[in-house]
Amino acid sequence: MGENPSREDSTSVIRVRPAREADIAAVAAILVEGFRSKFEAAFDERVDRAESVVARTLALGASRGLAGLFVAELEGRVAGTVALRRQSDPDVPEWDSAGILFSELGLWGGLRAMFYFSLLDQPCGRQEVYVSDVAVAAPLRRRGVGQALLHHAEKVARTWSKSALVLDVTAQNEAARQLYRRLGYTEQRLRRSLLARWLLKEGEWVRMRKDLT
Prior knowledge:
Helices cover 40% and strands 27% of the residues. By secondary structure, it is α+β, with helices and mostly antiparallel strands. It has one domain (4-211): Gcn5-related N-acetyltransferase (GNAT) (Aminopeptidase). Strands 1-2-3-4-5-6-8-7 form an 8-stranded mixed sheet. A hairpin with a 5-residue loop joins strand 1 and strand 2 (13-18). The protein starts with a strand and ends with a strand.
């Protein structure tokens, strides 16, 4: 997939491209920064290991070219990231990812993190592309990076011959919901989990969908 330049003013250009192995450290840092509260809940006092866990887990996919992972570049650096998944895409072998958690967090810490993350996993249909891990580096937010990533997601979905994009966003994240609505996503349903509310301090997610015409 080629670069997708998105000009936001006369001095800066956002380019979205497939992630490369050299991007892994930057992507891991952006994801941990963007989803800090989730990593704190899952890793507890070992949250300092979050970037290493994410980077090592991403590296497992390097052999297949980090398929589905894209980054946005702005001002010569990785500014944001998005992950796209199809129902037919192979998962990272559970034992490999579990091994990383155990080696970084210990047996109990690894089991805890696996359980917490399992609460966030959601399916998608055969004609859908699931959008996740939309995150932008803090110094470069509010400059169109997130919008550029989502526009690129639409192009990828069409290339994959899919008919819709779907995602889940926490109900309390009104800023993200407004962005998605502006880009043509509609809210489909509300999912509640008392267990997730207790453990993750977030118990409601909104499934949003954008049909591609």
